Amino acid sequence: MTDLTAQELGAEALAPDDPAWNAAEAVRVPLVPVPVDAQPNAYIRAAWHDRSYGATPSASVAVATHGDRLFVRLEWDGSGPVAGEFPDACAVLFPAGDGPDTPVTMGDHASPVEVWQWRDRLPVQEAIPAVRHLVSTGPGMFRPGAADADLAAAATVDGTRWSVVLAGPRSALGAPARVAVAVWNGANEERAGIGAVSDEWAAVQA
Amino acid sequence: MTEQGAAGQLAMVFDLNKCMGCQTCSVACKVLWTREEGEEHHWWMSVNTQPGLGTPKGWEDMGGGWRDGTPVPGHQPTRAEFGGGWEFNHQEVLFGGRGRDTHLQPVDRGDGTTRWGMNWDEDQGGGTYPNSYYFYLPRLCNHCTHPVCVSACPSGAMYKRHEDGIVLRDEAVCQGARFCMEACPYKKISFNYVRGVSQHCIACFPRLEEGVAPACARQCPGRLVFVGDAADPAGPIHRLVHEWKVALPLHEEYGTGPNIFYVPPLSPYRLHDDFSIDEETPRIPPEYLESLFGPRVHAALDTLRDEMARVRAGGTSELLDTLIVYRWHDLFGPYTVDPASLDRSPERVAVQLGRARVGATEGE
Ligand code: SF4
Ligand code: SF4
Fold it and tell me: Does the B10-83+118-358 domain belong in CATH 3.40.640.10?
């Protein structure tokens, strides 16, 4: 199992290029496509069974805390700022319960997953929050999570390389503390369960 | 295929022989439902000249629907394929001192949206002089019996309402994944880019709940849109669809069980090269109508022609009397309430909005 160490930063570090991140250890997390057979309905399985997706091989993940806030920084190669119908996006996943069997592929009905999802936005989409709190019961089976989750995100992009920090309550880390990440390549029309996700839960040492 | 059983099923019949392409239905819908930011290019009700590429551009070639119980992958129509929703250069022409060297026109943002729009190919039609032909085809969500859009949504945001079979979306749950847009073979779902949610015709359900017909039907000056429950044996829709069999679904082969039906258009006879009348051949090619309404269209047109001949010969026709619609309210089944007669006080509207929200939650 991949191990991540949550570094106490001594300050809020929402900006991806905040020097405080120098103290945090970035770990390469392998990503795999969410299997097409696991997709939640026959339409999505039929539409994607012969299409390539989730090809992003890995993301660099760093975890930090400050007080009761948790910060997760993801860096990966995507398609760059949104130019077509779908944006690049990323998410941090937490098992919503403490069962050992929560599928890393965005949970299932018995073992839901909390999702903090960031999406790139078109200029006309400024009113849409950059980060959404979702509860997932399967690949892409997202429903709105608690509206008062107090999430925040900040992103920078250099060409196609994204650096995104997602921040939220530290209490999202359960016991044992585990996270996974997901990324979606917008230029390949990836969204919902069509994307790349960690190959296993990573343990977080807080 | 998911069987979406409903206690009732709202249905509509459009008599294309009376549609004059005036767009009152589409504008009535626009004014009522899609005036907000992000909805500029939405036409939940659209009227297109046929033959044509339609709205969105080339929708009949975009896939979707069901085949042998399996969903068919479809294309998600792009913003450019819908076109429209333009901003005009009012500032430049009216106030920018350029009124003499440019003209009022949509601002081209390089995204293709100024090169198409609802009924863009309005004045083309088919055939060549003197046998040119065209007719109008109003289209809205078919509130299908097997709504592939509902089946394709991973979030469970869409549902088919039990009491009247209309297909709705809880926009608070919609994540904007747009699989519904791909899966719908009629391409009657639009995306609201500003709010990040998909949207489509809601069959004017807040009106239906007050006994008022949908705006497209009630505003139609051609008085050609029947509204009611498809299964009501006493209603005109049941008789037009199931007894006389003159009202047909559009592209039944898409497999979704549409609940909007059309009386196909008759047309004058073709002219020979010497301008004499070819009394064997209607101007609108029957094979073109078959491509839209299926092989039953020929029998439907025969029935219409036979009934017209009977009346011309001095007889009577219950079918033609029904299609003529002597009394306007006969179109609307149980939905004859005048919306102007409703109590629209803020208190009453608040109660209605609350009910609409409860309805959305119950249907999930
Ligand atoms: S017309 Fe399209 S959007 Fe409407 S119910 Fe049928 S499949 Fe769904
Ligand atoms: S309002 Fe009636 S006549 Fe006018 S375009 Fe619509 S359906 Fe046709």
Answer: no
